[in-house]
Amino acid sequence: MSNRCIYQPKGAAKEYGAWACNLYNGCSHHCDYCYCKRGVWVNTMGVDKPELKAMLGKDENEAYLIFARELKQHRDKILAAGDGLFFSFSTDPMLREEIDLTMRCVQECVIQDIPVQILTKATWWTRCGNEYEDDYLRRLVAWNNYVTIGVTLTGHDELEADAPTNKERIDLLSRLHTLHIPTFVSLEPVVDFESSLKMVLDTLHYTAEYRIGLMSPIKKDRYNHAQCERFCNKVTELSREYGFTVKWKKSIRDFYEEGLSLMKLMK
Fold it and tell me: E strands along the chain, which residues?
């Protein structure tokens, strides 16, 4: 039987992790740039409310059992790849509808000594004053040797209609940093280089890693080569000064190199 939730991503997704897990399809953030809302994925992953993948059974208990079986099957290969298991490319795994199953599966990863990466825009689960919500943080603190939380930032709230604001997400990063929960910032997509640089400047004290990629597809007039070069050079300079790492995704590396090649032709 083929895998139902754990798989090896291809293409640009592979740059985030050699192994990934999708338990749900769909997301309620309604981001204008979401790749799930285009092409062949629009009627499955592009839906506006998260839905448990049909192939994972009738409920979360059945989905968890399938996940645990696949995790055991691929444990050695996931560990050998080195970057753990990535949640998720088809949804935000920390949405209210999903978080309990996400945390149950993360706990299974911890039991199996498998590192986990979680990419989210959701912030509700970190708010103080609610014992139920604070329990998520307590568990993540206990698992901080295994779990890294990634937060997507664009600097453009108007393109992310029902997501928490970028300011709220930066506050999330700050709190996770205070609790010693490892984080990374996903600057993907870069909407414009000025906004993305501001996101770096606003978060460089709260994270040790940035992952940066351009919006797909790369349209001719969306980006400027000179601005891209200045941005990349400045972020590299800041990384040396503040000690964070940068994973430049292929999309921005190619655009940067294209700009350098054009400059040489013009000389």
Answer: 6-7, 19-21, 24-25, 51-52, 85-87, 116-120, 147-152, 183-190, 209-214, 245-248
Across the chain, what does the average pLDDT equal?
Answer: 92
What is the rounded CA–CA span in Å between residue 199 and residue 153? 7
pLDDT for 9 beyond 90: yes
Tell whether omega for the bond before 182 is within 30 degrees of 0, i.e. cis.
Answer: no
For residue 166, how many other CB atoms are within 10 A of its CB?
22
| pLDDT tens, position by position, 208-257 | 999 999 998 877 789 999 999 999 999 999 999 999 999 999 999 999 99
Q: What's the CA gap between 235 and 102, in Å, rounded?
A: 33
| Rounded alpha-carbon distances, angstroms, from residue 70 to 52, 61, 81, 180 | 17, 14, 16, 30
Q: Taking residues 146-171, report their average pLDDT.
A: 98
Q: If you search the block for the tokens 């749900």, which residue do you land on?
A: 24
Contact 125, 99 (CB under 8 A): yes
User: And the tokens for 101?
Assistant: 């199953």
Q: Is the dihedral of CA 46, 50, 54, 56 positive or negative?
A: positive
Contacts of 187 (CB under 8 A, 6+ apart): 153, 154, 196, 199, 200, 210, 211, 212, 213
Residue 238 in contact with residue 200, Cβ under 8 Å? yes
Structure tokens at 235: 């972020």
Distance CA 147, CA 42 (A): 30
How far apart, in whole angstroms, are the C-alpha atoms of residue 175 and residue 20? Answer: 26
> Which of 18-32, 103-117, 132-146, 158-172 has the weakest average pLDDT?
132-146
End-to-end CA distance of the chain: 58
